[in-house]
Specification:
By secondary structure, the protein is of the alpha/beta class. The longest helix is centred in the middle third of the chain and has 33 residues, at 111-143. The protein folds into two domains: 8-128, Response regulator (Rossmann fold); 144-207, Arc Repressor Mutant, subunit A, CATH 1.10.10. A five-stranded parallel beta sheet has the order 2-1-3-4-5, with helices on both faces. Helices cover 58% and strands 12% of the residues. Residues 139-203 form the HTH luxR-type domain.
């Protein structure tokens, strides 16, 4: 049993025999697989939740794999996309990777190479999910702060001492200390350095 047995792998390919061969390979390694014979079919009923990835043929009738990828980007799809391509479509696949696709494999490909890419995509998805969970938890803590506590937070991050903060906010040092103590508790920070590092990391994630 693999470490991603609860993951869903969506295959989008118009070649039924090829889809069936991928389903057999993936299910024999305990993956859960959902097949789609076109990009349109996927988009009609695609709601990515939890751990998963997409395996997409780059050239299909109707909406191409690249067009599907652009639509998924527009929809904020969180799952990694692995492209399958023929030799002539490698340049397109390279462009897709530059746009954020996880990887591409040129047909015909080695089964173990395919499984390794899928496992890598799922690992990337798991990492991204963990980052989102950290970000969401941090934002919840920020949202729990009062307006005054948020002001104190910003001034503490700027490296200002309690006396300076008190002067700037027109309140007593004891009041600053009270706000600061509550703010530190709510943010789950053990020290000012811990707090500053957490805020900087959070803002870097948002900027990225």
């Amino acid at each position: 049993m693999n470490s991603f047995q609860h993951a869903y792998i969506h295959i989008v390919d118009d070649d039924e025999a090829f889809r069936d061969s991928l389903v057999w390979l993936l299910e024999s390694h305990d993956y859960r697989v959902v097949c789609h014979n076109s990009a349109e079919n996927l988009l009609a009923d695609f709601s990515p939740e939890g751990l998963g990835c997409l395996v997409v043929d780059i050239r299909m009738p109707g909406m191409s794999g690249l067009e599907l990828f652009e639509e998924l980007i527009a929809r904020g799809n969180p799952w990694p996309v692995v492209f399958l391509t023929g030799h002539g479509d490698v340049p397109m696949a390279v462009q897709a990777v530059k746009r954020g696709a996880f990887e591409f494999l040129e047909k015909p490909f080695n089964q173990q190479a395919f499984l390794s890419v899928v496992e890598g995509a799922l690992a990337a998805c798991r990492t991204a999910m963990a980052h989102v969970a950290v970000r969401d938890a941090f934002e919840e803590r920020l949202a729990s702060l009062t307006t005054r506590e948020r002001e104190v937070l910003e001034k503490v991050i700027e490296g200002k001492m309690n006396k300076v903060i008190a002067d700037e906010m027109g309140i007593s040092i004891k009041t600053v200390e009270a706000h600061r103590g509550k703010m530190m508790d709510k943010m789950g920070a053990r020290s000012i350095a811990d707090l500053v590092q957490a805020v900087v990391a959070h803002r870097s994630r948002d900027a990225g």
